[in-house]
Amino acid sequence: MVEMVSRPYERAFEKHALANPDVLCLSADLTSSCEIDKFRDNHPDQFLSLGMAEQNMMSFAGGLGLAGFRPFIHTFGVFLYRRPYDQLMASVAYPRRKVRLMGFLPGITTPGGMTHQAIEDISVMRSIPNMTVLETGDATEVESICEAADSIDGPVYCRVLRGSVPRLFDTPIEVGKMRELALGEDVLIVTSGITTEEALRARAALEGAGVSVRHLHLNTIKPFDAAAMLDHIASVRHGVVTLENHVTEGGIGSLLAEIMADHGVGKRLVRLGLKDTYAHGGSRSYLMKHYGLDATALVAGVERLMGADFGIAEADLTATRIEAVHSTVKAEGL
Amino acid sequence: MPEALRRNDKSTEEVALGIRRRVFEHAMRNNGGYLSQACSAAEQLAWLYNEELTLGAPTLPMIPKPFGGVPSADNPDYHTGAGYNGPAAPEFDRLFIAPAHYALVAYATLIEVGRMAPEGLEMFNKDGSSVEMIGAEHSPGMEVHNGTLGIGFSTAAGLAWGRKRRGEPGRTWVYMSDGEVQEGQTWEAIAAAAHHRIDNLYAIMDVNRQQCDGAMGSVMEVGDIGAKIEQFGGVAVWVDGHNLDQMREAVKTPHRGKPLIILANSSPFRGMPTLQLRFPRLHYVRFKSEHERAQMNRDIAKSLGVPQVDYGQTEGK
Fold it and tell me: Most buried one in A13, A179, B6, B201, CB count within 10 A?
């Protein structure tokens, strides 16, 4: 059974911030929702409450960066780019300020519906010059995200998981280095964030059906070195399946498509994720099933790629974790 | 540590007149320009640069370098245009020109106070030049991008907070325009500055009541800016934007724990009364006919006490 870690960000941020006096903790009225409420209470000198005013917060953080500080902005991912996009561009990204954008509730990991679900954030952030994009997929990556983000000479956007987070890996994020989770030769599965856990669920069933799976987990989405990925693509017979907690335009599916087209790779690519649609409010497991972001969808994607029917049923997949919408590790269901 | 630049020998009134003359000559030769901003802002920018700001000697060449590329990991030599205001040393003040559309006026100011060569203005809006029409980070005297209005005060608040925390005595100043108060971010920024007691933050706002579409009252009424600033937690002081003594007094207003914003009531025709003919389209004055251009040339030259500008009108027209 997978180990569940409670509130890994809370401890990781405190440890990193206390060791780095130029790190500042910024919050926009979602302090407990971003697991920095204890930090606020225990280290008020390093904490700035900027209210429900993200446009000002973004430019303000740019000014802090100009003064040599490294602000970590904490809010839900959507609020880091939808409302303050102009400020993100002019005050943070263009001048390469060392602002660390900690985006909580990536994709459909919130029951908050359209207004709370950052489903196109990677697409937006990838297209911003000077921006680095990181995504956490387990507790160990959350525990190492502050150090990884703070090593970047410029702005960085991070998709951060919160609450009760499974531990899948035992080594910290190394920026720019993908995780090779399986090295099979039939199909390449590329995942990031919470979809990696789904791929792990599907893998045993696929292997049982005789499919040799190569599985890569991405925690660094930009910048991206295509060379290693090309080797992996060349190592499989059939092609590539991507599964992302994001729309299929502009995220890791597009990233793979760009790499393959740029290098004339004549293999098929199946991109799974939100297909040109918004989601609505609901539990994570419901949303992942409803919108085809789960292990079942991945199996179907592999079948489509290989033109086969493995007869894998829901019951054949490794058991899913059932998460309570409201639990003690979250301040609010959002 | 470079020594603070000795103030030039000109009076602030002379600097203000010089700003209007340079912008006028530039606009005549280029068939248009930001004339009304020179009219409203000249005394304010002259006062800041010639009297109020404590700035070091320029660190960049008098004749601006060409555009050197945008910030990127591959452009290690990138720098902003802030060096025309001197080094970013703890004891010196910093200035952001929040309405980057005032760039032409700001460049003229740099020339008048001896921080940039007159040749710099010849590069205005020329391809490959750093002396851009809308002041960019790399343009002379600029340190951050403010081309989208309403973001300057926020950035300055963050910088000022950081400088205060580091114990730097230098102040952070923002040159603002009244149109920016239509942007909600301005009010977010004032509230944030007050909440965090950022009182090393100063602004002077050119209240000329004009914006791109015309008179602000016709575009979107903003009410009593001063009262609103006070309500949001700042300290506001009204002055006549062409009266230097009032500015000199206003900056002494106590504002412990709050940002100080000087509201400079100004006229967009000041020094060039014939511009009234163009009301309400004053944001960027492009001459509509040769007749108008000639008339403006004649009238404004007379108002400013300079010869008419030879913009080629005598060559066989």
Answer: B201
- The number of folded domains in chain B is 1
Tokens describing residue B181:
């108060």
Q: Are A165 and A142 in contact (CB under 8 A)?
A: yes
Please name the CATH architecture into which domain A9-167 falls.
3-Layer(aba) Sandwich (3.40)
Does B144 sit within 8 Å of A56, measured CB to CB? Answer: no
In a domain, B282, yes or no: yes
Closest CA to B301 of B271, B257, B276: B271
Taking the model in full, what pTM does it have?
Answer: 0.95
B297 pLDDT higher than 70: yes
What is the distance in angstroms between the Cα of B137 and the nearest Cα belonging to chain A? 8
Yes or no, beta carbons of B71 and A86 under 8 Å apart: no
Tell me the pLDDT tens digit for each residue of B261-278.
999 999 999 999 999 998
- Mind listing the pLDDT tens digit for each residue in A103-126? 999 999 999 999 999 999 999 999
**A9-167 shares its CATH topology with A179-316:** yes
CA angle B97, B101, B103 (to 5 degrees): 60
CATH number of A179-316: 3.40.50.920
Residue B50 located in a structural domain = yes
Tokens of B69: 């590329």
Q: Domain range spanning residue B85?
A: 12-70+77-304
Confidence of residue B7 (pLDDT cuts 50, 70, 90): low
**ipTM reported for the complex, 2 dp:** 0.95
Would residue B317 count as lying in a domain? Answer: no
Give the type of residue at B250: A
Q: Which residues of B touch A61 (CB under 8 A)?
A: 158
Q: How many CA atoms lie within 13 A of B167 on its CB side?
A: 0
Cβ pair B161:A56 closer than 8 A: no
Q: What is the CATH number of the domain that holds B191?
A: 3.40.50.970
pLDDT by residue (tens digit) across A183-202? 999 999 999 999 999 999 99
Tens-place pLDDT, residues B13-71:
999 999 999 999 999 999 888 999 999 999 999 999 999 999 999 999 999 999 999 99
Selected for mutation to probe chain A from B72, B148, B149, B154 (highest A CB count within 10 Å) is B154
Closest by Cα among A56, A42, A65 to B195: A56
Q: How far does the CA of residue A105 sit from the closest CA of chain B (Å)?
A: 25
How far apart are the CA of A170 and the nearest CA of chain B, in angstroms? 31
Integer Cα distance of A240 and A186 in angstroms: 9
